[in-house]
């Protein structure tokens, strides 16, 4: 076994790998950019090496700096985690050339399965059924031959990045261009493939484990059908769809896929499965790394997959055969992401002001967060994972809903409350899942109104801040009690804003502490976690800001008749298609803002002239920052 292992990653996966290294008595080395100098994975490792300044994402992609860090710290092996260089064959080869063990599959297997086209051809030759499709350079022709709907996918990576579902082939060229940009930004390779889209499919994957002695086993399946924008958000093991016969057949197909490329280590074979006929499954791709959702497999099998990655990389044979693998109980995982459901799930950001992550009987949280963590726009939006285990599916779902209600991440908007409501949806409870379920039901899972008690709590916090402490004489005009000469009392009102601004007068009773606020309205007591202007409960959070109606009125007057286009999320402007003075049409694409590897197109709200343009390609922008102003034709002519 290795004495020292360098973890070439960051965030929750680096913390996760370090935890197993510690339990095995292996020294861990973390790497960090300037932006992550005080991150949790840096503090939890035995030692840490700076690999570069911001922009931070580029530092973690520098093979030269990572190898230098390994040499400086005496590491014998490198664990790539997932993301960044985890599926980079050149990195695996560079490690070998530097005398380091790459804790993952051979570089040739990464290269083969990383090219989704070659992967499909290889597993088809091994007898595994595959989804019909085509690839570059005949991508557009293949899409038209397949007929709508089709799915565009990057050949070099997964995770939903760069994927586009195209139902209208008249927009094919535009969708291909957008998919290429996202693929290039996420994987450094804009090669695409196209596949026939199967309506209402289920996404089921098989975990495989192979050693260097010819042994390959599967560890059962994970149901990953609950997705949004092709990104998994809830995963569970086992799947309620599969019977023992189908599970065995799919498991054997996954084993054959792994053997076909000479696989070694932990990997995942992903299948698309028609929900009405689970026996008709198709190979989609193989992820040659540890998956985000691996904890659910660990909980139902009792195996530590990171430990077995290390043991296999160190040359040990698997200590068990296929017949020794047992699936016991049920596990469900929820991905906590920095995104705002109320704003169409756009990426969010900020500083973590208050953090509470659930732990306990049957609950596990994998996280890279601490209070004070700065969540920026350079990385994937996933912050942590909450996993629940129980003797059956109903128990695991109930535990996970409770754990999400206890999750507090104030200062950064997350999807925790949305996930809790999703897990209570009747179709999810019944196990009637497909990859389009979330998109169909999303409107009913995102509240449109801010509860009154949120404004009541925000008002109570402001009243408490204005109320002087005990002792000594108090000027009655300084106390917000509504006291006036003549005995007339007018309760104080506050101008507040969560979504739309309003004027609110507190009308209940309240108790305010440094980290909580409780209010009683109409006989019902509501308790919130609090930090600065943030309030949270049951996984939901509200940023209740003060609103200045005078300043807002002056701003509207300054741009009377025009529309200010603002940034929908913190991020980077990647494309600017217009200049000041240009005439634009309603709906015309003007700018592209990217955050957390996701693009958002800013379009003209109406026909008119660009009178202001405050950004250029590469500009970093904050949420709600003005990007451009479009004056209607009437005003421009005047």
TrEMBL record:
GO MF annotation terms: ATP binding; biotin carboxylase activity; metal ion binding
Residues of the ATP-grasp domain: 120-314
Keyword terms, alphabetized: ATP-binding, Biotin, Coiled coil, Ligase, Nucleotide-binding
Reaction it catalyzes: N(6)-biotinyl-L-lysyl-[protein] + hydrogencarbonate + ATP = N(6)-carboxybiotinyl-L-lysyl-[protein] + ADP + phosphate + H(+)
Domain of life: Bacteria
Protein name: Biotin-dependent 3-methylcrotonyl-coenzyme A carboxylase alpha1 subunit
Entries under Pfam families matching the protein: Biotin_carb_C, Biotin_carb_N, Biotin_lipoyl, BT_MCC_alpha, CPSase_L_D2
Entry keyword annotation includes Transmembrane: no
Lipoyl-binding domain span: 549-631
Pathway involvement of the protein, from the record: Amino-acid degradation; L-leucine degradation
Coiled coil: 162-189
Species the sequence originates in: Streptomyces coeruleorubidus
Domain Biotin carboxylation: 1-443
EC number per UniProt: 6.3.4.14
Coiled coil is among the record's keywords: yes
Necessary cofactors: biotin
Entry function: Component of a biotin-dependent acyl-CoA carboxylase complex. This subunit catalyzes the ATP-dependent carboxylation of the biotin carried by the biotin carboxyl carrier (BCC) domain, resulting in the formation of carboxyl biotin. When associated with the beta1 subunit AccD1, is involved in branched amino-acid catabolism with methylcrotonyl coenzyme A as the substrate.
Subunit structure: The biotin-dependent acyl-CoA carboxylase complex is composed of AccA1, which contains the biotin carboxylase (BC) and biotin carboxyl carrier protein (BCCP) domains, and AccD1, which contains the carboxyl transferase (CT) domain. The AccA1/AccD1 complex forms a dodecamer.
